[in-house]
Write a structure and sequence with these properties.
A hairpin with a 5-residue loop joins β3 and β4 (about 55). The strands form two sheets. The chain has a five-stranded antiparallel beta sheet with strand order 2-1-5-6-8. A three-stranded antiparallel beta sheet has the order 3-4-7, with no helix packed on it. The chain is about 5% helix and about 25% strand. It has helices spanning about 75-80, 125; strands at about 10-15, 35, 45, 55, 60-65, 90-95, 105, 120. It is mainly beta and about 140 residues long.
Length: about 140
């Protein structure tokens, strides 16, 4: 969705943010300074040397990603990984940080070329387990 500049049509809302926070919306008392909605892919991506890759980069500390077409899984809300005290959300909420300032993303799979270049928080960190970080050509029982 990001590579095709269709993230909004696919159900994603993307914001740059100075901190991980659950609150942002139409209520002015819950808005945070420095949280800005990303409306065009070009604000957080750039072309890579390979046509099948995209560079993810943003100046803010976090990218806040809301997926509004599904609510959080019950298991996520009950997991020990999700210790924040809050009400159930009708959307999946995640944050991305880039310790190196950028990350290469494979356009076909949507996965980072170097799996640990982006650091995931929130729903994606719970959903994207270590098995998803294995090399794409990995076959169980074979040596790397």
């Amino acid at each position: 969705a990001l590579a095709d500049d269709r993230f909004e049509q696919e159900g994603f809302r993307v914001y740059t943010a100075p901190a991980r926070t659950y609150y942002y919306g139409s209520n002015p008392q819950l808005r945070l300074d420095g949280v800005e909605q990303v409306e065009q892919t070009g604000l957080i991506t750039a072309s890579a040397m390979q046509p099948t890759q995209l560079v993810l980069r943003f100046a803010a500390r976090f990218l806040r990603v809301e997926y509004v077409r599904e609510q959080e899984a019950y298991a996520y809300r009950q997991s020990r990984l999700n210790r924040e005290t809050r009400r159930a959300s009708n959307k999946q909420l995640s944050w991305v940080a880039l310790p190196k300032g950028r990350a290469l993303v494979d356009v076909r799979s949507g996965q980072a070329v170097r799996p640990f270049a982006p650091v995931l928080f929130g729903y994606w960190s719970w959903q994207e387990r270590a098995a998803n970080a294995l090399p794409r050509a990995y076959e169980p029982g074979t040596a790397p």
